[in-house]
Design goal:
The chain is mainly alpha-helical and 329 residues long. It is built from twelve helices and no strands. α1 packs antiparallel against α2 and α11 packs antiparallel against α12. The radius of gyration is 21 Å and the shape is globular.
Length: 329
Amino acid sequence: DLFGPRGFISIAGLLCGLGWAGLGYATTLPMLYTMYCIAGIGAAFVYSGSIGSALKWFKERRGLASGIMAAGFGGGTALFIPFISSMIASNGYQATFVATGLFQGLVIVIVAQFLRHPPAQPAVAPAPAVSGASQLGKKHFTTGEMLRTPQFYLMYVMFVLMATGGLLVTANAGPMARSWGLTAAALTLAATLSPLANGASRIFWGWASDRLGRETTMVIAFLLQAICLFLVVAVGHISGAWFAFTLVLVYFTWGEIYSLFPSTAADYFGTRHATSNYAVLYTAKGVASIIGGWVGALLYEQSGSWAMGFYGSAVMALIAAGMAVGLRA
């Protein structure tokens, strides 16, 4: 937000390339963790910088723009995992880490040179001092100002509630399939189709929100997510086909959070500090990962059933839908 995307994404490319390539030379666990963290920080910079730039450039199509960015970030794995797997099999881990690390770092740095903020808007006379709530959508909030609005905390809780269900599935799809006696082929089918549904969800619901409105789209998508989470435990155990089908439905009604929340934050708090503001809001995913991944597995260990975790996540999605109704109020 302060220095522009060119230098920021260039640094991100260096971190991604050096961290990822460095993994090929890791000989100790601390070194492995360090290189992985460096690469992860670079990837986080790429994600936040790309989303922020999309929100700044495409103000009339924020939902679609942020959805495409999010789909690219998540869907890129579908393009490169087959290549990486093949290279590991033929050349080993070290050569694969070094080659793919240098490749991605170089590409990110090159692309970064073409990035810039949109032209500055013409200066306007400052508005008289008004309460923060009445200024929503009319001014560019700094992150500190955003943190003093109730709408931010409402969105944060909604993000946590909605992210939990999808992360529960992501973290526990393998254990679920094994506990239900499903075949490896069923899990492979689900793992192949789910990322496609996830990516399509980000684009579709982002596009829909530009036309229906963010809050309306949230209510529809969140209600559908609750139904789909219920279907996983209701019919997902019947066969591998049902398992894959219900997981695809969950991902298609879940991935939209990565297009709806950044665009909604920009609608409410402006675009000048969009990258910083969304970076703070996005930490809700970290909270949800603990609930969905660790707590979900813990509930299964204690009860012997996945029902409690999925029904609980469905209720959380319903609560989030209700909160979306009152978001503008």
